[in-house]
From TrEMBL:
Transmembrane segments: 6-24, 115-137, 149-169, 181-203, 209-229, 236-254, 260-276, 283-301, 307-324, 355-374, 380-398, 405-425, 445-466, 478-499, 511-530, 542-562, 568-584, 591-609, 621-640, 652-674, 680-701, 713-735, 755-775, 787-804, 824-843, 852-869, 875-894
Protein name, as recorded: Uncharacterized membrane protein
PANTHER family named among the record's database cross-references: BLL2549 PROTEIN
UniProt lineage: Bacteria, Pseudomonadati, Pseudomonadota, Alphaproteobacteria, Rhodobacterales
Pro residues bias spans: 86-96
Organism encoding this protein: Roseovarius pacificus
InterPro entries named among the record's database cross-references: DUF2339_TM, UCP035905_mem
UniProt keyword terms in alphabetical order: Membrane, Transmembrane, Transmembrane helix
Region annotation Disordered: where it falls in the sequence: 49-100
């Protein structure tokens, strides 16, 4: 029955407020129509006069008549203009002036200060009179002088007397600033309204003399009276009544058995203030009433007045904010939105839009805070229902209000924030009940909280898709269809990912059960993608289709993460990358490139880091071949399918991924062949260094893609990978160097047959990585690429030198001394290397390589004369110098041939590659 009473009171409020509003608005409309008619007649007369004077004006120019003065009344209606004919407006259009700020401008604050300086006795008088009614009730309570009935009657009588006195003074002497009684009627009436509000609140909240329905009806009547008086008395009465009526419950004191009534009481004050301001358009009155009533409601809620009615009160005030200032049951706010204003669009949002920009996010924040403060499941679900209702209303009810389209984000983000906060420490009751489900008895059904939250998110995505279709059919409008497509594609998917990351539903529902939820969202996104693709080709249809396709693929990937093993998951992701590449090739959807890039990054992360190289090394040989060879083959096929994206970031990422994973795959295969037990060896550290250096080169290769932020991220990642590679290379060169004995006398033995042994595994992959980096990283400076080439040659030289020592000294290279055949072999190797460099220089016509080759010759000569002469003896020394002489003669001949053939032809001095 109380609900029926509340509904009846609200209906009465509509009648009490609506009828006077219609009468006054009709009167104002008549004045505006009459003003427009007068203006049209004046302009018509001016045009006729201009036509009659045209022949004379050609012979002698006449000065233009002064333009009529244009003024606006305080209620934004044009004032009566003079009937004197005027010249027609100039053809040159004048830009609209910048719209003035409506609320709390500096000039208004200064005017308020000046008014208080000159009228402070009136302000204090109004405050004293308002408090008189409040303290009359409070004094009676404290001293028990009067019965509760007479206390209430006294407050109501005082309020009525003050209002009556103010109205008599206004009618007889006026309320204008230029009269002796200026502002006095407004002061008395405002104080009387506060006394009436306080009396009714005391009758219900303190003494229980009346029930909720009569109390609400009385408050409705006082609010209606405040509206009517505010229309006649001006903003002072409105401001005083708002502040006094809002503060009355806190000044009366005491306790109430129905504290929820205050939420609706504050909503009535908001309705009264907005109703006054919707006619007068003072603007700051509406802002004041919303700030005062919303703040008071939050204060009552923090005192424990209950969450349900607080949420309902917020919804009522939000609805009033959208309806009353706009004067329409269906919001039709037009003009600049909040996002448009942030982007610098002009003109700035108008007054009703500004009110909505403030109230809708405030209500959404109130819903989140209520959800977090709730101690019971019922309280949480009430807040969720309120936010879901706000989201549905924003998507359906505000469909004809383009200026409010971006405010749909407020309830959507509030719902997502509530999901995360419920799982934060300390967790909310909803998440706590869900997490405790595994400990429940076996016959207890699984909790439905996650399913309900996901269903709400799916409904939000479906409604956003509906708005997208409306925008696409219009093809033009303030809110493009692509923005609605982003919201529809992201909302349900984001909710699913947040639930997975924060709630961990798989631990309660099982991996299969939670994967079904993700697949359900994927099915929805697939349906939306199909429906979008079936529409006419306009409003970026392909881009919108790609958004839904990416969202569906993301949900499928999540389901695969939950269901498949490590190797199967990597293969599944690779198949998805190939499938997306085929879709892009077939339908030309560039946005899918982002999903392909993300897929390549995830695949690389899985094959290198988690489960990574260690998992590949410890797996069996067939498993390693499948885990690495399968993704490589699929990525290579995807790279081929993306040939229409040549030079674009997506193909660069796939190509770099193939190079990196190929190097990692080679290292894994070498580990498989050599055995994973010797990972802490010279060849094990060499392979690990190869993996990290290849990863760093991969990030450097992607620098050719645009984006300053992405470049910074890639440089940071390249530096981190390079540091890890340097650490492994430093261990290989020091503690694990086969030339040295390790700590505690340990010895690094060379394993495998000569040439194809652990030395080749340790140094040749590193040489290959640096050689490929010097060749392919053409975005790096030339000096850096040359340095990479030198490092590659250094590792190759280390392998050759150590292999020569292994051939002469066996698998233990840390034995002392150097034999004469070994020393002579180094000389031969150096001469062959110099000869090879000279031949390559001749082939490439490179002056730089020619200089390097001749420097190698000089180094070889220095070794022979400084080292071999003292270290060799007998026939070996003879052979050394004989071979050196013949080699030098041959190299000199080859150098002269090069000079003769080159002549004056252009020579290259290019960098490696």
């Amino acid at each position: 029955m109380e609900i029926l009473g509340v509904l009846s009171a609200i209906f009465g409020l509509l009648i009490v407020i609506g009828v006077p509003y219609l009468l006054i608005s009709h009167s104002g409309l008549k004045r505006r129509v009459r003003a427009l008619e007068l203006r049209a007649e004046a302009l018509s007369a001016a045009l006729n006069a201009n036509r009659q004077d045209t022949p004379d004006s050609q012979s002698a120019p006449r000065p233009a008549a002064p333009a009529p003065a244009k003024a606006e009344a305080p209620d934004n209606t044009p004032a009566e203009i003079s009937a004197t004919p005027a010249s027609p407006p100039s053809p040159k259009p004048t830009p609209d002036p910048e719209p003035r700020a409506y609320v709390f401008r500096q000039d208004r604050l200064q005017a308020l200060g000046r008014w208080l300086g000159g009228n402070w006795p009136l302000a204090l008088a109004g405050l004293s009179l308002a408090l008189a009614g409040v303290f009359m009730v409070q004094y009676g309570v404290e001293n028990g002088l009067l019965t509760p009935v007479w206390r209430v009657i006294g407050a109501l009588t005082l309020g009525a007397a003050l209002i009556a006195g103010g109205e008599v003074i206004r009618r007889r002497h006026g309320d204008d600033t230029d009269t002796p009684t200026g502002f006095l009627p407004s002061t008395l009436s405002a104080a009387g309204l506060v006394s009436l509000f306080a009396g009714i609140l005391a009758a219900r909240g303190l003494y229980g003399l009346i029930g909720p329905t009569p109390a609400l009806a009385g408050l409705v009547a006082v609010a209606a009276l405040a509206i009517v008086l505010g229309w006649f008395h001006g903003p002072l009465l409105a401001a005083g009544g708002i502040i006094g009526a809002t503060a009355a419950p806190f000044l009366v004191g005491g306790s109430s058995d129905a504290p929820w009534l205050f939420y609706y009481y504050f909503a009535l004050i908001a309705a009264a203030g907005l109703a006054v301001d919707t006619v007068k358009r003072w603007a700051w009155v509406s802002a004041l009433v919303l700030i005062a009533t919303t703040g008071a409601s939050w204060l009552i809620f923090s005192m424990g007045a209950g969450g349900l009615h607080f949420l309902i009160g917020l919804l009522i005030v939000t609805a009033l904010t959208l309806i009353v200032p706009n004067r329409s049951l269906t919001p039709t706010h037009d003009g600049t939105s909040l996002l448009g204003a942030a982007l610098g669009r002009h003109p700035l949002p108008d007054f009703p839009t500004r009110l909505a920009i403030g109230m809708i996010p405030a209500a959404a924040i109130g819903g989140v805070l209520t959800m977090q403060e709730a101690n019971t499941l019922t309280g949480v679900w009430q807040a969720v229902a309120m936010l879901a209702l706000m989201l549905g209303a924003a998507l359906i009810w505000l469909r004809n209000a383009p200026a409010l389209a971006d405010l749909t984000l407020a309830p959507a983000l509030a719902l997502l924030a509530g999901i995360v906060l419920q799982a934060a420490y300390p967790s909310g009751p909803l998440h706590a009940a869900f997490a405790a489900a595994p400990e429940a008895p076996p016959e207890t059904p699984l909790p439905l909280s996650v399913s309900i939250l996901l269903a709400i998110a799916a409904a939000g995505s479906a409604l956003a898709f509906w708005r997208m279709k409306r925008a696409a059919e219009a093809d033009t409008g303030p809110t493009p269809a692509i923005l609605w497509a982003i919201g529809a594609a992201c909302f349900a998917a984001t909710a699913t990912l947040l639930l997975d990351f924060t709630w961990h539903p798989a631990s309660v529902l099982g991996s299969y059960g939670w994967a079904l939820h993700a697949l359900a969202v994927a099915a929805l996104m697939t349906l939306l993608a199909e429906r979008t693709a079936a529409t006419p080709d306009k409003a970026e249809r392909r881009l919108r289709t790609a958004l839904f396709a990416v969202s569906a693929l993301t949900m499928i990937a999540l389901a695969l993460f939950l269901l498949l093993s490590q190797t199967a998951l990597t293969l599944a992701l690779s198949v998805m990358v190939l499938g997306v590449a085929l879709i892009d090739r077939r339908y030309d959807l560039p946005l899918l490139g982002w999903f392909i890039q993300l897929g390549v990054i995830v695949i690389g992360y899985r094959l290198i880091v988690d489960p990574g190289v260690i998992h590949g090394i410890e797996a069996t040989f067939p498993e390693a071949m499948l885990a690495y060879g399968g993704p490589l083959a699929l990525l290579a096929a995807g790279w081929k399918m993306l040939d229409h994206r040549a030079g674009q970031p997506v193909r660069i990422v796939v190509e770099s991924g193939i190079w990196t994973l190929s190097a990692v795959f080679a290292c894994v295969l070498l580990f498989q062949i050599m055995g994973e037990n010797d990972m802490g060896s010279h060849w094990g550290m060499g392979l690990l260094a190869t993996v990290w250096f290849a990863s760093a080169a991969n990030q450097l290769y992607r620098l050719r893609m645009g984006g300053r932020l992405f470049k910074v991220v890639r440089l940071v990642l390249a530096a981190l990978f390079a540091l890890a590679g340097l650490g492994a290379a430093a261990l290989q060169a020091t503690l694990l160097n086969p030339l040295f004995k390790g700590l505690f006398g340990s010895v690094e033995r060379v394993q495998g047959p000569p040439v194809l042994d652990s030395l080749a595994v340790a140094y040749l992959p590193l040489a290959a990585v640096f050689a490929v980096a010097a060749w392919r990283l053409d975005t790096l400076p030339r000096l850096m690429r040359r340095l990479l080439a030198v490092i590659s040659a250094g590792y190759a030289a280390c392998y050759i030198a150590l292999e020569i020592r292994r051939l002469w000294r066996g698998p233990v290279l840390s034995v002392p001394d150097v034999t004469q055949p070994e020393l002579y072999s180094y000389t031969v190797a150096m001469m062959i290397a110099a000869l090879g460099a000279l031949l390559v220089a001749f082939w490439r016509r490179s002056t730089l390589l020619r200089r390097v080759a001749m420097a190698g010759v000089a180094l070889t000569v220095a070794k022979v004369f400084l080292i071999d002469m003292a270290g060799l003896s007998g026939l070996i020394r003879v052979a050394s110098f004989l071979g050196l002489g013949l080699a030098l003669a041959g190299l000199a001949w080859l150098d002269r041939m090069m000079s003769a053939q080159w002549g004056d032809a252009p020579r290259t001095d290019d960098s490696p590659g």
